[in-house]
Write a structure and sequence with these properties.
237 residues, 10 helices, 2% strand, mainly alpha
Length: 237
């Protein structure tokens, strides 16, 4: 899948899991959805020149090379449906124990979401290294300033990673067969859809957008603010 498709599917997954998410309040719920959406890009940190590795220049590009080597190359270890959520989730558990590491993790999620969704955001600020750093770290700081240190971050990371893997599993390139690829490199592809094909752009992307809006409306208090306005408009018409 393309980067923005991963991010949009992650936002939809974040909105869908809100009833079970340990995030509380409007700020916490918005942060949860954004974190899952951003972390749905994280598995592609296994190769350089990806959206993830390019986001903050050397700060993200250098780790991408190391992670790719440890993971066995692109779409292997970081795309294992068992190992990847456990590994990234374990790192997130360590990060969520302190303010600054939580800030880094949340800024990474926000930055990834902004970078992947740049095609619907006016201007190009979020695609520049400095602009993305300012927006993502500023947004993460505001979230943490209005909530307690989010112990739910590891869950958001795991949910995003799994969403990414599910998305790649329905493309022709596929994902590694969980654990068994360590013995024999074999991939699992669940459909004949090519990355970037018309069906992804015309069908899946709009579906993810609609699902995110509908699920966010259904699973938050947003309907409490919107329904009275809709009633007024209908009654006045």
């Amino acid at each position: 899948m393309l980067g923005h498709s991963h991010a949009l599917s992650g936002l939809a997954a974040g909105a869908a899991t809100l009833p079970w998410a340990p995030a509380q309040g409007a700020v916490g719920q918005a942060a949860w959805v954004a974190a899952v959406g951003g972390m749905a890009m994280l598995p592609d940190l296994d190769h350089r020149d990806s959206t993830v590795s390019d986001m903050w220049g050397p700060v993200t590009d250098v780790p991408a090379g190391a992670i790719g080597a440890l993971a066995g190359g692109h779409r292997w270890g970081t795309h294992d449906a068992i190992l990847a959520p456990l590994a990234f989730g374990a790192l997130a558990v360590l990060a969520s124990g302190a303010f600054w590491s939580s800030l880094l993790l949340l800024a990474l999620a926000i930055g990834l979401a902004l970078r992947a969704l740049h095609f619907v955001i006016p201007g190009r600020t979020e695609t520049t290294i400095l602009g993305n750093l300012l927006l993502s770290w500023g947004g993460a700081w505001l979230v943490l300033d209005h909530t307690t240190t989010p112990s739910w971050l590891p869950w958001a990371v795991a949910a995003g990673v799994l969403t990414h893997i599910a998305g790649d599993a329905i493309t022709t390139a596929g994902v590694p067969v969980p654990l068994l690829w360590l013995v024999r490199r074999k991939r699992l592809a669940l459909s004949p859809i090519r990355t970037g094909a018309a069906v992804e752009k015309v069908a899946l992307v709009p579906l993810f957008v609609v699902a995110t809006v509908v699920l966010a409306y259904t699973n938050t208090d947003l309907h409490l603010a919107v329904d009275p306005l809709v009633d007024r408009l209908l009654s006045s018409g």
